TrEMBL record:
Topology in membrane: Multi-pass membrane protein
Keyword hit for Transport: no
PANTHER family: HEME A SYNTHASE
Cellular localisation: Membrane
Organism: Kitasatospora cinereorecta
Keyword annotations: Cell membrane, Disulfide bond, Heme biosynthesis, Iron, Membrane, Metal-binding, Oxidoreductase, Transmembrane, Transmembrane helix
Protein name: Heme A synthase
Spans traversing the lipid bilayer: 21-44, 78-96, 108-127, 133-153, 174-195, 226-244, 256-273, 279-300
Domain of life: Bacteria
């Protein structure tokens, strides 16, 4: 069946490097949209546009009477189209590449639908007056987009052979546990934000924006506990990967994650004891996206999709038996 995509593929043959650049652009924009979403919240512009999908009931764009908050909120909405363009570029490049890699095309479409769903969730946050639970779901959905974007970028650098592990199964499971704990850390962070400072807007009709009715200090402590657990697991992974001589890329990535976690931890403690200044919160949100992306990359370095993979590295227990 002839389609616009097949017609494009007949006339345009991007190189593998072009496909990788397109996938990287989509990944960068997925992190940028997290940062700009944080800027909307931290400038109290979450209700800068009073409705959705229009900015006001009468206007698609902000009016002069809405001031800077309307401009900030509307600009963030417009950046969604830039993100869509980057994802569209990745989809088209993957489709037109010879040979056609269906897996990359599907990952690109997964990013597109995540962007669309996140736009709808963002609209619901406005329509519900920045309900903190909906805002948390909005952030988690953005992290899901980062996850798929990272996977797409990494897959664009690999072949299409079946994945082959480069380390023993317990090492792979350790990497999955690490990703899961970092994911829980991000979710806990959204709850801390929902119960604490920076609700995103001054509220409607003079009423403050509703916050999650849980003790802020206890949530912050639970979040800190997950930070300690994440750092401990990452440090363990650094030592284990070195002991079993895991692939160089995996060892480098787990060290990168450790550095990011330590920096984020210091930032988080300073943020807590300085009453959460806006600039630090913005750095913290951007850091969360970078940390989650860094964690997701670790299991991907423990297997190969090339035609010939390196031999599997035995686990420490197996080494002791030889």
């Amino acid at each position: 069946m002839i389609s616009p995509f097949s017609l494009l593929a007949d006339r345009w043959h991007p190189t593998a490097a072009h496909v990788r650049r397109a996938a990287l652009a989509a990944l960068v924009m997925s992190v940028v949209i997290v940062a700009t979403g944080g800027a909307v919240r931290l400038t109290a512009s979450g209700l800068g546009c009073t409705t959705w999908p229009r900015c006001t009931a009468e206007s698609l764009t902000p009016t002069p009477a809405m001031g800077i908050h309307g401009v900030i909120e509307f600009t963030n909405r417009m950046l969604t189209y830039v993100l869509c363009a980057a994802v569209g570029w990745a989809i088209l490049a993957a489709r037109a590449h010879k040979p056609w890699r269906r897996s990359l095309t599907r990952l690109g479409w997964a990013q597109f639908w995540l962007v669309m769903s996140n736009a709808v969730i963002g609209g619901i946050t406005v329509l519900t007056g920045l309900n903190p639970y909906v805002v948390a779901v909005h952030m988690v959905s953005a992290m899901a987009l980062v996850w798929v974007a990272v996977l797409t970028w990494e897959r664009s650098k690999e072949g299409d052979a079946a994945p082959r592990p480069l380390v023993a199964a317990p090492i792979v499971r350790l990497s999955y546990v690490l990703v899961s704990v970092v994911g829980l850390l991000v979710v806990a962070g959204t709850l801390v934000t929902g119960a604490g400072h920076h609700p995103g807007a001054p509220g409607k009709d003079g009423k403050p924006v509703w916050r999650i009715p849980l003790d802020y200090d206890r949530l912050a402590q639970a979040h800190a506990d997950l930070v300690f657990l994440s750092v401990g697991l990452t440090l363990a992974a650094v030592l284990v990967f070195a002991a079993v001589k895991a692939p160089t890329a995996a060892r480098a990535r787990v060290r990168e994650l450790l550095v990011l976690l330590l920096a984020q931890g210091v930032l988080g403690f300073v943020q807590y004891f300085t009453d959460a200044p806006e600039a630090m919160v913005l750095l913290h949100m951007t850091g969360a996206a970078l940390i989650f992306g860094a964690a997701v990359r670790i299991p991907l370095a423990l297997r190969s999709r090339d035609e010939e993979a390196a031999p599997v590295v035995p686990a420490p227990a197996e080494l002791a038996n030889h």
